[in-house]
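JOB MANIFEST
job_type = single_chain_structure
chain_count = 1
residues = 578
[input]
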Amino acid sequence: MSNMLEALRGRIAEAMTRSFGAAAVGADPMVTPATDPRFGHYQSNAAMGLAKRLGRKPRELAAELVAAARLDDLCLPPQIAGPGFINFTLRPETITEELRHRLADERLGVAPVSPARRVVIDFSSPNIAKELHVGHLRSTIIGDCLARVLEFQGHAVLRRNHVGDWGTQFGMLIAHLQDVCPEALEEGGSVDLGDIVAFYKEAKRRFDADEEFKARSRGEVVRLQSGVPEAVRAWKALCDQSRRQFDEIYRRLDVRIEERGESFYNPFIPETLNELDALGLITESEGARCVYPEGFVNKQGDPLPLIVQKSDGGFNYDTTDMTAIRYRVRVEKADRIIYVTDAGQAIHFAMIFAAARKAGWLDGARAEHVPFGMVLGEDQKKFKTRSGETVRLKDLLDEAVARARAIVDKKNPELPGKRRAEVADTIGIGAVKYADLSQNRISDYVFSFDKMLALTGNTAPYLIYAYVRVQSIARKGDIDYGHLDPAALSTLETPEELELGRALLRLPEVIDVVARDLMPNRLTDYLFDLSQIFSRFYTNNRVLGDPRQTTRLALCDLAARTIRLGLSLLGIRVIAEM
């Protein structure tokens, strides 16, 4: 019975049906973790919901539910509070028995989902010839975290990087490449273009200043879209150069992602437009072909279009995103499609989803936009360098690791140099990720190296240190946690043991919430809470040499394994010492 929350919901739902019959059909048992620890550990306000249906007093209904519910094996006698809340406190024996099971379970009580779904997650999505910068940080690590959680649940997850690798800007880049590096256009040629961002800026400067170059650039777009081999080779050289730089950042962030750039969907555009046309969804407007999803208007009240083909015959983001969503449902057989992008694209994706539903592509499938706010500097403005440039993600990660190394050098100078470098990398990269994921993703947040690298508070270093502390107990006592006998775990007794035990049992329900709401900070909040509870337990309960040593070692082990699992789902590694 790994998920206590679901177990209680099931028992209350049964009691509702037994007591009130048809009147309870479809009613929510409304069992949630208690927000106030003084009032039990779980709480139901089902009686209030039933009172509206039955026209009766909530406290009377609550009393009937308590009498009908079969909870003796799980809870102490439930208490009715306020207007009709039912409060449940798990029995110490119940907590202990479940922890015995988890001690022997590598999944720590989190059962694989059934049925498993096929999920496409679209995240990161940089543009070719531009570098990953701080603006890509949130999409990349939020998307990776959600993929990890859903994969751990047992879903089949397709991680998709919708790279901007097609479009009119490539004419400009190809024309510039012809002039500065013509060997890149030769068949079989492989060249290093150096700083790809500087290359882009120089091409853009020429495009804005030179009408002849601008005209040639537009010609190269046509050549590329027509498949002229020389133009295609130049395009591939530009993509390969960018891809090498992207892959290095993904490696450092430990992010797995499969590229499905805009160009991938290009061959499928004609059939997408033909189907939309056959369904009667395309309307011509000033030479452009448009789809008008219902309910979207501009400030003047005019309907907003998705332009699926421009008046010059070209295609754009609307075209590619419509084609991609159709491909993901029809070919990749997605049950759920998740787009992780900044909040500024909310209307765009709402229109894409509405149009896809109108076309019948989302019948039986769900599409969701996961928006996020901006990363701000400590001046509360968009995070930039002192010179006003966008912060490169590489530079940000380098700075985090360098600052972490300074802390490690100061606090643990006896560690060998190579080991200190490994610890600094783990702490620095983990701190950047955790600082972002611990925020409500919808909100903007202020980036601060000092706060994210602190050894106290809701930070990665604090959680990693909690894990390290448990490993130090094992080293000090010459103990192998893997040899602990679950049967030797005795019933929890002290307030701190019980508090820690209850917190450990919450893991499955927390993972369910993250997967449902797509909010990584639900997991970070839980891990921080668990670490604080563990700290209180460790401070007030002697472990080594105590008569209850085995039980307390088991609690230490479960706490560490839960923290390690939780951090791994955030994409953060742990270390045994720091």
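[summary]
The mean pLDDT is 92.
The first strand starts at residue 31 and ends at 33.
exit_status = 0
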